[in-house]
Amino acid sequence: MQLLIASNILLWLLLIAVAFTVMALVRQIGVLHGRIAPAGALMVDKGVTVNDPAPQVTAADRHGRPVNIGYRGERSQLLFFLAPGCPVCKSLLPAVKSIARDNSGSLDVIYVSDGDFAEQQALIEANGLQQASYVVGPEVGMTYQIGKLPYAVLIDAAGTLRAKGLVNSREHLDSLFETLHLDSASLQHYLHGDPSHSHDHEHAHTHQHSAQH
């Protein structure tokens, strides 16, 4: 009987020790999670510098109509560079369309691609982009030195390039707009305290959109 009681006490002690160990692990996981930096669009340091005037390009959309990019106007522009053969590009289209809807009064979303027109048309029809501004041609990508996809560029109404970077998720797209509020070229520069990419524009335009997934 005494052996049974002793074994039960030992089991309870072990159970309590395991419980405290689990609690400590949970707490440590929470600390590590809090230290993880938010992921933002990866800005490749080539091409136009953020907060410099955006290159002005007039390209033709898929109907042959002119599309002015980088000029001063009443609305900001979001350039989304994609390709029919890019699976990640396709996965981001619902998020890009959501941003376009949420900011329809202040933002023009321009889809930029290149390549076979039949493939472009299939992508447009499959993703409901018939009414979107869709440019097909190499001019814009070459001017902005786009080397990898999917890529996005944010230009404000004054014609200033405000943010750019590789985008692989809705979070990356949202980070382009967050940099306007953080007064930094990218989340990476903000987290590393790099002042060389900050701006002092007093006419920063606020873009509000819901993070629908």
Key phrases:
213 residues, alpha/beta, Glutaredoxin, 2 domains, five-stranded mixed β-sheet, two-stranded antiparallel sheet, 6 helices, elongated, disordered C terminus
Structure, described:
With 213 residues, the protein is of the alpha/beta class. It folds into 2 domains: 1-36; 57-197, Glutaredoxin. The chain is built from 6 helices and 7 strands, in the order αβββαβαβαββαα. Strands 5-4-3-6-7 form a 5-stranded mixed sheet, covered by helices on one side. Helix 2 (87-102) links the parallel strand 3 (76-81) and strand 4. The longest helix has 34 residues, at 2-35. It is elongated, with a radius of gyration of 24 Å.
How many structural domains in the coordinates?
2
Strand order of the largest sheet: 5-4-3-6-7
The geometry reads as elongated
Mean pLDDT metric: 81
Helix content: 25-40%
Can you lay out the helices and strands and say which pair or pack?
Layout: H1 2-35, E1 57-60, E2 66-69, E3 76-81, H2 87-102, E4 107-113, H3 117-126, E5 133-136, H4 139-143, E6 151-155, E7 161-166, H5 170-182, H6 187-191
Compact overview of the structure:
With 213 residues, the protein is an alpha/beta fold. The chain has two domains: 1-36; 57-197, 3-Layer(aba) Sandwich (Glutaredoxin). The protein has helices spanning 2-35, 87-102, 117-126, 139-143, 170-182, 187-191; strands at 57-60, 66-69, 76-81, 107-113, 133-136, 151-155, 161-166.
